[in-house]
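Hey, I'm writing a tutorial for new members on how sequence and structure tokens pair up, and I'd like a real worked example in the thread rather than a made-up one. If someone can provide the structure for the chain below, I'll link this post from the tutorial.
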Amino acid sequence: MKKKYFLSVLVIVLGLIILPINVQANNIEDDFVEVPYNQINVLESEKRQVSMTSEPSLGICDLGIGINKNGIGITYSTRATQVATEIGVKDMVLQEKTILGWRDIPVKDHYDYDTELYFGSVVYLSAETGKTYRVYCTHYAIIDDVEYTLYNETDSLVFN
């Protein structure tokens, strides 16, 4: 009887450890601040040039995470090979590592119209020292009523 009880408890504990759980955060829009364009410093390499005469598609798309003086900084850029009617990032989620897995912290979509390049940056103001974070998103561009997408994610980062 005791052996059966012990095995049942062991299976439950192992199940909780092995199966990470995503927890959704609510009402966190005030935890992010958007960085104005004139405060973003983008350095571009000549090797990363995209020919604007190519077939319609996404070009170079970047997603970064870093430590900012007041939180976790997220930078993103989406480039298309032609002018897009809409271009940007969507379904962006900052994740915070917890004991049971990753807690999802949604970030609002960012986009612009009638351009071939969109870039931006936000800072998560509620980052906690010692916690681990990562971010993922979908870059997209709508060209001639066709949506082109690219999934992107970062490595994890410990906020200190």
